[in-house]
User: What shape does this take?
Amino acid sequence: MVGIRSYGGYVPRYRLNRFLVFGSMGWINPANMLNAQGEKAVANFDEDSVTMAAAAGADCMTGFDRSEVGGVYFASTTAPFKERLCANLVAGALAAGEDIRTADFGNGLKAGTSALMAALDAAAAGTANNVVVSAADIRLGKMGSVQELMFGDGAAAFMVGDKDVIAEFKGSYSTGYDFVDHLRGAQAKYDRQWEERWIRDMGFDQFIPEVVNGLCEKYGVAPGDFDKVVYPCYYGGARKAIGGKLGLDPEKVEDNLQAVIGDTGAAQPLMMFAKALETAKPGDKILLVSYGSGCDALYFEVTDNIKKLPSRKGVSGYLERRAELDNYPKYLAWRHMVDVDTGLRGEEMKWARWSMIWRSHKAILSLEGTKCKACGTVQFPPQRICVNPKCGATDEAEPIVLSDKGGTVASFTSDLLSATINPPAVYGSVNFKGGGRFVFDFTDCTVEDLAVGNPVDFSFRIKHYDEIRDITSYFWKAIPA
Amino acid sequence: MTRYIHFPLNEEIRSIGGYYKVLEEGVLDFEDKKVLYALKGAHVETSCCGSGGMGLVSVPGYVTSWKSSTSDDGYPVSEVKHITDLEARKRIQTQLKQRFPYIEVFDFD
Assistant: This one.
């Protein structure tokens, strides 16, 4: 039986009240008042689609052994690289090993479901098992645009396999059309959309019923047979109309999370699906539909195994972890939408030294240190010689992944002299649980949130962004647990 | 007296060329009277000549009775007295502008 073995979600901590944006930009587009309801989730200054996909993947892996992973697929329309496989970065952050399948899916909003179907097909064919599919997006709309209010940031991940599945995959139906409603050219930073009525009446209203009816005909079911129905559609009225056209009970249609997160692009249907699984019961039939350049419809049935799945944060857990971003210009700076002066220190050249990065790639991506086989001492960065003065064994160390160990704050400081787009820089020493100590940046917090001895988790984040060469460098940071 | 129907907030009220939503309703204390106002967003998106929209504050009038009856559709209905005094309109608009600084259109008619 092929299907979903596990799921995870991720919503960044910061929320931007849409009316705050409208208050600054409503003058250019007064009709945007209609879109200025609720709040949107926004990635921190050190997050992008790769880091969010890694966080959702880690949530998905809760209770699973990383050695089981047979592949990592990354789906996004906002990958930070055009040539550098982001799935390898996510796989590295999950410490999933390197003898696995990795692939990136992109260029359309149904990339998330395309990746999921590819993993399901591989599991069914026996060519790859326990593939982690992680979708994330961080799309940008121009200042004052509808999209600026509409879009939110987030991620969802699923492990796909052929045993102990929590949701059996029953089948799919897809359509592909060169129907352009939203688009970004290869060099474009911002989304451009065609008229709303086009997107709503010719897009959502036609294609979603078409793919749902196609799937139902193929598998001999009716739309009303599903206990949970997931389909994205930003427009409230059109969303209700689609449900009406399909004869769906509104209670069975999953919330699109627009009021609390926003449209998360390729991740949107998968985040809704992950949230649906949080409350799913054995026997529930779930219909997952994506939209964008056509549609994918996937049919799942929940199994008894869902009762055994270890608890995780999920989309709901991350929604509860929130802080207001009460400063719209800060959002613009974080997303590099405006030029800001970070002082002379900010002009320092920080090269990405690829040979050094390759030499240390397991330490950088997986937070992999060493554990002395002779005395058990843990050390980060990895060392050939045991740091324990009573031991000193040479080449007796085995690798140990520290990213999921957590730790405690040993010291911390707040630095207004360091060049950062999010001053003050907060950093300090962290003791790993089980031994070892290293200096980390603290993120998703202020200095007031820290105290010596407080527990922290580790989060894969952007360490540095080289604006001149458009290179993002990653490392782990500590966040209050 | 003019009847004012309190439609549900944030629901699309559609017409042939587009729709509007009532986003907020409130009563403003103005001198010795109560002024009913409604913050609305309007969007023209099914017109042949393009799309666009605006935010506006509609001021139906002084409240003379509050949700004292219901419409045929079951929505609450208040009664208001139209504000015709142009100087009073200016003073009301000044107060409302402080509350809604991003609004350029105040509709008293």
The beta strands of chain B are 2-5, 13-15, 18-30, 33-44, 52-70, 76-81, 105-107.
